[in-house]
Amino acid sequence: MRLQITIPISANYVQPFEAYILDWSINTNETSEPAIEYIREVQKSNVPITILTGELRTQQTVGSDIARMVERYKVSILEKPAMLEILVKTFYNILFQIPNQEPRPANQAGVSVSIT
Fold first, then answer.
1. Which of 25, 85, 86, 97 gets the most CB atoms within 10 Å of its CB?
2. What is the pTM of this model?
3. Tens digit of pLDDT for each residue in 25-56?
């Protein structure tokens, strides 16, 4: 059985981002699957999408649902709690590395990361 949910329209539906980090479980019966479908099918965007989940080994998350997202929409998965440094460096590599070139320092790439 497939669950249909409505996602509130927000700025990301008007102006696409360069990458998305989405929590898989929104609440007990909702996942970020509709948001991923929207990004890929409506926005026609191939930007990186990473799904965060802390429930891969629980009954609440169906692994085949996440596997389908990986296969169909080419998303990546990180388990929570995700280490912030790994998350930041993963997205830095995806967004700012040019193949066959030396990595640029973050201050030269115009990247600023602030955690409050």
1. 25
2. 0.65
3. 887 788 899 999 999 998 899 998 999 888 77
Domain of residue 37: give its range. 17-93
- Classify residue 42: in a domain, yes or no: yes
Q: In a 3-state reduction of DSSP, which class is residue 96?
A: helix
Q: Rounded to an integer, what distance in angstroms lies between the CA atom of residue 83 and that of residue 72?
A: 26
DSSP-derived letter for residue 100 is T
DSSP 4-72: P--PPP-HHHHS--S-EEEESEEETTEESHHHHHIIIIIS-----EEEEES-TTSSSS-HHHHHHHHHH
Q: Write down the residue that tokens 């990458």 correspond to.
A: 19
Backbone angles phi, psi at 75, to 5 degrees: -90, 160
Check which CATH number belongs to the domain holding 33 and give it. Answer: 3.40.50.2300
Q: Cα(103)–Cα(14) distance, rounded to whole angstroms?
A: 32
Tens-place pLDDT, residues 104-114:
444 444 444 44
Helix (H, G, I), strand (E, B) or coil at 81: coil
